Amino acid sequence: MCDMNLENIENNSINTAFRKICAQYHSNSSEGVLRSMRSIFNRIMAYASEQYGVTYIKEKNENAVKEQAQIEVFTEDEQAKLIKAVYSGMDCNNLGIYICLSTGMRLGEICALRWEDIDMDRRTIKIARTVQRISIEGSTKKTALVTDLPKTFCSKREIPISDELFRLLNGINKKQGYILNGDRPLEPRTYEYRFEKLLTKAGISHRKFHILRHTFATNCVVNGVDIKALSELLGHSDVKITLNRYVHPTLDIKRNYINSIAGIYGQYRGQLPTLKE
């Protein structure tokens, strides 16, 4: 039986302390790391609320609206150019790009992906770890490349392999260690640099690596993939994240909806006498 008296903790002090921690790491940490910190904090406090009756204000991402506005995807023309560039020199680096475009995996997840995570019998990819460069405690300059569990519980997932990806994976002779870098995980910044070189080769303006994930998710939405299934494929902790971030119909989709309604009216019109001027 735990003898901690959490009921005596001042509610405001809990959130204040957490915000100070976030402020301390804000300049040296990516928004993804800060999101993970918020997620872990909220889970801990949810447990404290359930077990000890502690109340608190759930920490939200103050930049959520800004992030949604910045989401960008490759156009169909750019996707065609990218696929052509990938196939023109298919190696492990280009294979990794194709994997991300086909599964929505994050940069850290593909850099930490091992061959043993790919089940060729079941045709699935298991996301079991991620890699990221973080600041060393007590130092503002030194960093370390750290391999850890995925960012959230839901990020630890299994993704089906398409028939084409299965064919490409079967074509690789060496199948041991890390897919991108053999005996050790690849530095994410190194892979971002290689991605930029591939974009240059394809004649596409430079974008962040995360655009592959956004493009995959958007393609899924456009092709009618169930949102719950997409949320699980992306490793989101809540389907609301998927809805708010990716379910924004394009103008063409909206036009099709409008035309479908007009089609219904057309059927009604066919059942009525022709109106005379």
Describe this structure in words.
It is a single chain. The chain has helices spanning about 10-25, 30-50, 65-70, 75-90, 90-105, 105-110, 165-170, 190-200, 210-220, 225-235, 240-245, 250-270, and strands at about 120, 125, 130-135, 145-150, 155-160. β1 and β2 (about 125) form a beta hairpin. The chain contains twelve helices and five strands. Residues about 1-10 have low confidence and may be disordered. It has a three-stranded antiparallel β-sheet with strand order 1-2-5, with no helix packed on it. It has two domains: about 5-70; about 75-245, Intergrase catalytic core (hpI Integrase, Chain A). With about 280 residues, it is mainly alpha-helical. It is globular, with a radius of gyration of 23 Å. The chain starts with 10 loop residues before the first helix and ends in a 7-residue tail after the last helix.
Structural class: mainly alpha
- Summed up, the domain count is 2
What share of residues is helical? Answer: 40-55%
What is the CATH H-level superfamily of the largest domain? Intergrase catalytic core
What's the average pLDDT? 81
Separate helix tally: 12
Q: What would the principal axes of the Cα set say about the shape?
A: globular
Largest sheet: 3 strands, antiparallel
CATH topology of the largest domain: hpI Integrase, Chain A
Strand order of the largest sheet: 1-2-5
Helix-strand pattern: HHHHHHEEEEEHHHHHH
> Regions with pLDDT < 50 over 5+ consecutive residues?
1-10
- Assign the CATH class of the largest domain: Mainly Alpha
Question: What Rg do the Cα atoms give?
Answer: 23 Å
Q: Report the count of strand segments.
A: 5
Distance between the termini: 85 Å
How much of the sequence is in beta strands? 5-15%
> Which second-level CATH architecture of the largest domain applies?
Orthogonal Bundle
